[in-house]
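Table 4 source record.
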Amino acid sequence: MRMSPGLKTLVAFCAVPALLWAAEDPAKAREAGKNALGKTKVAMSAALETAQKEAKDGKAIECELELQGDKPVFEVAFMTGDKRTEVFIDGVTGTKGATAPTGEHKHDATEMANAKKALGLAKVTLSAALETAVKEAKDGKAYKGALTMDADKPIFHFEMMVGDKFMSAQIDAVSGKVIKVEEQKMETKKPPAPGG
């Protein structure tokens, strides 16, 4: 089947963020999230609130808790028009760190256009979707959240821990309703059969 140039652009436009989200090694990402959560004293919701004060009219599209050295830091990405800005929040004190304009982090045109489209369609904020996800996961502790496009629909994706379980949640960015919340099982590869 041959795709028209317009259809190719649409497929690329919708698929890139989902592919970037899925491209990282899930086991490593979960372990990094667990390690960072073990060191933070600040909830993602509080980090988003502090970062929003700095970003003023910006709309949050992503928040991730990472370890920078041994220090937990929330990286919160905002879009204001065509500009992406990142605000860093100390995961121990909850205070603002640096702010990085788009130029310091490379984001391709497709990723930026996708974020802009998702924000244009979304009726729910990242903070509100996070609140729904945490409640639905029975007091989950989120370490990653992002607004992405899934086909033609804006969706918030969250990764969190509930006790020692890794959970993921998807929240509809238009209605604010839960699409799904599920435990993420750690995949283990079976060793090859003897002689095979």
